[in-house]
Amino acid sequence: MGRGQLHPQGDRRSVSKDSGRPKDDATRVVSAGRRKEWTGGIVNPPVWRASTILYDSVAELRARVSDTHHKLFYGRRGTPTQWALADALTELEPGAEGTFLYCSGVAALAAALLSVLSPGDELLLVDSAYDPTRSMANGLLKRMGITTRFYDPMIGAGIADLIGERTRAILMESPGSLTFEVQDVPAIVAAARARGVTTLLDNTWATPLLFPAIAHGIDLTVLACTKYVVGHSDVMLGSVTAAPGHFTKLRDTSLQLGQVASPDDCWLGARGLRTMAVRLKQHEASALTIARWLQQQPEVAAVLHPSLPGCPGHEFFLRDFKGASGLFSFVLQGGDEAARAALIDGLEHFGIGYSWGGFESLALPVDPVRYRSVTERDDAGPMVRLQVGLEHVDDLIDDLSAGLARFREAVSSR
Ligand SMILES: *Cc1c(COP(=O)(O)O)cnc(C)c1O
């Protein structure tokens, strides 16, 4: 399936008609994937739920088998509700061929990896990867005879030394989960290309708006749409967008695995996407204000945020990213588990829970040392990860300020 079929209007969609200037992200998220032939005059594609599709004749049924792309065939192959979101995500990645959707971000990672790896292959996986990604490598992939070597997120061009005869794929995540190291993606991509190795990126933190992955040479880019695309903490959804030459295998693997994302969830995902650019701007502004404020607090030993000069890979962030999102961590100065819990438990606006990317703030105790194989950490105290939501930043700072006072009290009463 070529790009032409996915985008009958060609590249005109991403370029302003009058000036030839590339359309701004805010404009692209509003227009992407909206096709009149699927929705008539309706602004949002309705929820098309289906398993059985009825045909007028045996001849029509037979004819459809060989041509199911963007035609109703059987529910598992999707309906315009799913196609509209997949198309929108493809449009947001300049140079991409197509997108497949999944029932979660982890399911998307599994399909992307299984579309590339076979028994006997080796995967290079960044040491700062999302914990369930590590579990997949050490569990399912290992059981299938696929070995994994972890690499230091700051390896850059040095990855060339790790690429061996059996290395088939490199899975990056930048910035890293919990600790936010920014990788030199172009250097890793160049080393991979020179050796015919496929590159994958978990781009959930940045989304294509802050880091267009395919344009940076990535072959398969994965999003936990559960986070910023959905944006409202009420849907599980994932996507993989493929560069030319990688989509057919991704789609075939995904269909063989029986993957289908629910039309209801895709409808909510498409709805969330329309406001993603404006939400990301606010997440970035508030998170950065809080990160800088935290840097000034005596109870805080370090703030791990790609926009701050102390963050490993900050120079790559400045070079490659269009901005930051709203998730970062900070390290407390001394203190133990109980002192950290005193900080977090009393917070009013920050909920205690997994996931992120929704409209509401979250605070999570995180312990990255548990999830590292080849890199060490020597942190001054326990770590807290913040998802900064859309509440007013002054209220969030007041909340954290009271939290740090509770932390101080817990430390001094020992
Ligand atoms: C949450 C997350 C995922 C998994 O997404 P789910 O939809 O929760 O399965 C993958 N990668 C990163 C970086 C995440 O934060």
Automatic annotation (TrEMBL):
EC class of the enzyme, as a word: lyase
Q: Which residues carry this modification: N6-(pyridoxal phosphate)lysine?
A: K227
List GO BP terms, alphabetically: L-cysteine catabolic process to pyruvate; transsulfuration
State which gene encodes it. metC
Q: Which InterPro entries match?
A: Cys/Met-Metab_PyrdxlP-dep_enz, Cys_b_lyase_bac, Cys_met_metab_PP, PyrdxlP-dep_Trfase, PyrdxlP-dep_Trfase_major, PyrdxlP-dep_Trfase_small
GO molecular function of the protein, one example?
Answer: pyridoxal phosphate binding
Q: What is this protein called?
A: Cystathionine beta-lyase
- Identify the EC number(s): 4.4.1.8
The segment annotated Disordered runs over: 1-32
Q: Which Pfam families match?
A: Cys_Met_Meta_PP (PF01053)
Organism ancestry: Bacteria, Pseudomonadati, Pseudomonadota, Alphaproteobacteria, Sphingomonadales
The biological pathway it contributes to is: Amino-acid biosynthesis; L-methionine biosynthesis via de novo pathway; L-homocysteine from L-cystathionine: step 1/1
Q: Catalysed reaction per UniProt?
A: an S-substituted L-cysteine + H2O = a thiol + pyruvate + NH4(+); L,L-cystathionine + H2O = L-homocysteine + pyruvate + NH4(+)
Q: Which organism is it from?
A: Sphingomonas alpina
Name the PANTHER family on file.
Answer: CYSTATHIONINE BETA-LYASE-RELATED
